[in-house]
Amino acid sequence: GEIFRYLDQLKKGDQIVVYTAIRAYTYVVTGSQVVEPTRVDIMSPTDSPTLTLISCYPYRVDNKRIIVTAELQK
Model's pTM, two decimal places? Predict the structure, then answer.
């Protein structure tokens, strides 16, 4: 139940590996921000392969959202 519990500890340059049945994809963190829950523009399409991780924030308060973005490593 707490897969994104430590999302706020990711830093720019950290790697995130996403595994599928076919292969693994490595993304590099480009930034993070804390926003209001109404900021749905964060999920808008991007021009390049981008991973966007979203979770409630802060832990056990949950009145904001933490957003971590990462780009596919080539």
Answer: 0.91
